[in-house]
Amino acid sequence: MSLATSHSTVGSNINAVPVAGRSAEAPLSVLPQLKRAFGIEFSLWDGTTGDLLHRSNTYPHGDEHLVAELVRASARQSGPHLLGEEDCALLLALPLHRLRRRAYVAVGALVTRHPETAEQVQASARLLGMTRRAAGEWLHRQPIWSHDALMRLGDVVLEKLAVQAQADRLEREVDKLAQNLALSYEEVSLLCGLTHNLRISKSEEELGKLALDWLSECMPAQGLTILYLPNRFDAGAIYEESDKSRQLSVGQCTIEAAEFQRLLDALQLSSGCGPCVANRATTAEASWPMPQLQQVVVAPISDGEKTFGWLAALNHAADEEFRTVEASLMASVGALLGIHCGNHDLYREQADLLAGVVRALTSAIDAKDPYTCGHSDRVARISVRLAEELGLSGDILKTLYMAGLLHDIGKIGIDDSVLRKAGCLTPAEFEHIKMHPELGHRILADLKQLADVLPVVLHHHEQWDGTGYPHQLVGDGIPLSARIVAVADAFDAMIGDRPYRKGIPVEMVEEIFRSGAGKQWDATVVDAYFCAREEIHQVCERERCAAPADFVQWS
After folding, report:
1. Which of 3, 69, 309, 467 has a Cα at 20 to 30 A from 320?
2. pTM over 0.85
3. What's the CATH superfamily of 197-344?
């Protein structure tokens, strides 16, 4: 049977006729190589089915059904061999076992000698499926090969193709390994970065935003989102979290907080579960939770059995399915965020405990001396306002507030008869009351969280000229925080009533400040008082308020 021919360029140097519907899977790269080696065009057959995948356009192939049967048998052989031979021509078969994990067979027609008789031409024409005239013309155009040369060249070509296939496979594995190493490096860098940022000073939202930004660089997702669940603490706690969910997102986040919860319900996710991968293509349409999502990975933000929220990657960037590698990364990030949330809970509990201790101590001071009730709280707030006027901020303000609350804690150890005496103190009694800074220091010394407060407790009665107590420090040798509390303490003490006198008018207090600036008190702090005097007066007039300090820093 003669086969009609047409022209279609395939590869770089070969013309072939691809068979519709099958050419896309064929390893076309071998055909140009075979043409360079043998000087002719080969056809390509599927060795399993016997289907013709690519047809050489320089010669037909006789009876395709017969050739298909021969090809299937040929695919089981290991080296070059003949499918058929007639006088001057032969069909050389090259089984290609190692290409794309399928068996292929390349078939080429070659000439072993030029025909001398019409019978020889006719025999070759039958093998090739040509007319006698076409066969004669074709035979005379072809180079002459010996059987041995063809077999040796066939062995060499097959070995080269096998080596090349092995090299290609190894190169793909190396590329895949390089990609995995690059991804692993990014993942390790991300996890290390999060670990280094597991500081209590960072809020849950701050660390969550960092995690989302870093994840967006190595997760093949169109969008990433975190849903922090509501947290409720005791009504008396210093830190009362929002009773609403908080959502953070980067990229194309296609779900809001309410929809996120619906997604969790649809995927049947609850506390204590692991990461979940869901792909719409492999899920029943009726059970898919929302149409705007095609693929999703959800991991819990948890610490043990307590779940603080959920982390999700939405829609694969290449519209592929998410895999276990993405789920593992999300689970690791969720675990780190969960540890951070758990640590925050522990520190909040410690902060509430410390706040309770501080309240109890200040209440004890008030109970000790009813005339000074609220004094510690007012000193704390005045100290903060003076520090603000001096340009201080951040942790120093929190330290000053705590120090103001606790500056007179040593008075717990002072005799009531001395502390509440209505008349003037004797020298011995004055020496006794001067012990309260050191007593306070000893009371608080074992609380390492209050290390920054101790200098104020110990030195708030030092004076700029060195005549104060207990260590007669001079000028800048006195801690700045102690110098600030000294002015705040003196102001509230002078304007308040005492057992031995009535409160001093503000005008007289300010005159005392002016004369004592640079002697008893730091002149810079006194100047700050005069700049903020109106607000300081209002502080003293207001009722005692709840402590606004961030007690987490003391935990």
Report:
1. 309
2. no
3. GAF domain (3.30.450.40)
